[in-house]
Write a structure and sequence with these properties.
458 residues, alpha+beta, four-stranded antiparallel β-sheet, globular
Amino acid sequence: MKMNLPIDFVANMRSVLGAEYAAFEAALGSEQPVSVRLNTPKCHKFGPLSVSAEPVAWCRSGLYLNERQAFTFDPLFHAGCYYVQEASSMFVEQVVKQHINTPSAVLDLCAAPGGKSTLLSSCLPKGSILVANEMMRQRAQVLAENITKWGNPAVIVTNDTPEAFGQMEGCFDVVLADVPCSGEGMFRKDATAISEWSNSNVRMCAGRQRDILTTVWPALKEGGLLIYSTCTFNQEEDEHNVEWVAHTLGAEVLSLEVDPSWGVSGDTTGRNLPVYHFFPHRTRGEGFFLAVLRKTSAANVRNFKVKSNRMKGVGAALVDADEYAFELQNAVISAYPMRMEHLLGAVRQCAKTLQAGIEVAEQKGRDLMPRQALAMSVALDEEAYPRVNLDYLSALSFLRKEAIRVDAPRGVVLVCYKNVPLGFVKNVGNRANNLYPQEWRIRSGYNKEYIDLWGKEN
């Protein structure tokens, strides 16, 4: 399908790609590849996905699906067993693999909907702490849901501006800035991005990106890493901004080892910068750009005096519960790894915090009811509650927050699908009260074709 691309965009890309432009434009008009990334700690419980797939070369847990699926009807998707993510952006894993070798405090500044945050939480060295931030409130709620489903307890979700984190001087070893951009790399999947594109918008985006990077720069330790990425092709938002950061803010641009068979391209300006472009006619994915910079300029370190909010004498259904701190806020008990306490205290002093660690339980009258986040967490001690494996249609009913029946003792029961936890019910005998979050429930109508696909093994 030939796309109606802006004249100025065509001229810009012809100057960058030369004789390759025709292949590039044809790729933009081709079918978009579909890719997912597996959540390894959960996937071992049920084995491989029941759909055919091929590996993404630069990401150990990434897979290309041979056809698009209606993931809404797969309970394993809702259980956080995999994340639907564009393959090119999975390249962030290579930065972690090649440059981040010790436990690190990491800020994902523009994190919604959560693809790169869930990727980081899976591949960062053990002992790392991730702060996933999103400035827009509604998008931040989506981010929090996806982080909860992924299940890593060492994550803090915030909803604030770059200025808030600029106050956290010298707090982070790594900042990932997947900055808002002109979206040229999304033309294939988003027609609005085409209609909104202009050279003036490119210039506006490039200036806004510099403002964001300048604002957050104090939060990065000296010697810390900035992972800078966009989903666009142009040099102004990509190479020019990387060079600007290096010269103006003070940084060294680092290289990555890249297998030539991946089709990843380098600097398009002729300056031989170690930067990485994903063009859709060369790589199997959408447009993406990435650079890694090490901060060489001096950094102040702000010392935060943090008060402990720990509860005493609290246990929870967590593996290695003695490694967690517990606190009570608004009738909800949360647990977070003790190593996270100081950074969490600093974050709370500067940024609006939506969640930290695992929401374990909620006080409801005399009862202490488990929260959905506990069921989703990879730290859950699954022997703490009676558990029931649901068949496919019962799992869908549960995810619609419909009434179900379970063959289990009275009280709180952990319901699973293919041995993976979906959530909790309170079994009262003739029925089970469904405790699945109202805001997460499946709203789509039944689609027999996809129900037959996902439920074919049951």
